[in-house]
Structure formats: structure tokens, C-alpha cells
Specification:
The protein is of the alpha+beta class. The protein has one domain (5-73). It has one helix and four strands. It has a two-stranded antiparallel sheet. Strands 2-3 form a two-stranded antiparallel ribbon.
């Protein structure tokens, strides 16, 4: 068998479960990066210095008490 084993002979839609997970997580990370870049182009975001930001480790990383921020539109924002 080749480097991919039995999966090399399967149609494109049929991949091993770990391959589907990797492709999905890579796409999600790219989508999140593009979304944040778009938000930061159109808005100013300032964290509240009085609000603590402490990580809460779980399956996904999140803030223990949320993130409090002030958001306002940039005056030179392009788009809708």
C-alpha cells in the first residue's frame, strides 16, 4: 500500500476521520482570521482595563469571565 493506505483509492469525499477533522479545523481557523481582520479594519476595539481576562482551559480556549470591550466604527471604514 502507498503512503495513504486504503484511502488513496477512495473517492475524494471519502477520507479517514482524522483527515476530515484536520481539513475542517484548518478551514475554521482561516475563516476566523479573515473575520477578525475584517472587524479590525472597520472598527476600533478597546479592552476594558478594569475587567480581568483570565483563560479558562477547556476543549476550546475561552475567557473565564468573558471579554468586556468598547467597539466603535472607524471614520475611514470602507464598505457597507
Amino acid at each position: 500500500m502507498g503512503i495513504d493506505g486504503i484511502w488513496s483509492s477512495q473517492p475524494c469525499g471519502r477520507k479517514p476521520p482524522n483527515m476530515r477533522l484536520k481539513l475542517g479545523s484548518n478551514f475554521a481557523m482561516m475563516e476566523a482570521t479573515l473575520l477578525l481582520a475584517t472587524v479590525y479594519q472597520r472598527f476600533h476595539v478597546r479592552l476594558d482595563p478594569q475587567h480581568p481576562v483570565e483563560p479558562q482551559p477547556a476543549i476550546t480556549q475561552r475567557s473565564r469571565w468573558g471579554i468586556r470591550a468598547t467597539v466603535w466604527r472607524r471614520s475611514n471604514a470602507n464598505g457597507a
